[in-house]
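Chain A, query sequence.
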Amino acid sequence: MTGRQKIMKLIYPVLIKVGSRLGFKSKTMANYNAAKPIHSIFDLIVQLNSGKEIKLESYKGKKLLIVNTASNCGYTPQYEALQSLYEQFNPQLEIIGFPSNDFKEQEPGSDEEIAEFCKVNYGVSFPLVKKSRVVPGEGQHPVYAWLSSPEENGWCRQVPEWNFSKYLLNERGELTHYFAPGISPLDKTVVDAIRQ
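Chain A, predicted structure.
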């Protein structure tokens, strides 16, 4: 862990507390109208950082939390909370991390370096895909195009606000919630949504 990463880990609890009090990056959105996707996310495929391809249809029947991640961000300690959530709810919940360098270049490493960092520092055992573009534009990962397009998912146009934006899908592949980066994966609103 670099010096910057150690400092970020130390200030993370303060960042979450202050952010939640000020409403900074703490938005939650829910699919209150139970809108159905126009196209199924289960039609998509992701490539893990190991090179192995996974069809998202293999996650049918499970909740799925999709999170864009970075190793040099103030929210990087959320890896620990994500791993805790994964251990608590797996196999009913799958988590997929999408390392991305889209926000202030806070994920500069290679896929191998990212995997090593996550395993050594946070014990991450949930899948990580190859480093991806998650914001709109040329090269945006198809999963993120689906997550942020109501023409695909049925209701949500929210793009990731920053690293560690979270999208929750139900067992049928319906997008049910968006949680902003400032909301911990272990926050009651996230846990309650998973338990629904």
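The chain has a mean pLDDT of 92. The chain is about 30% helix and 15% strand.
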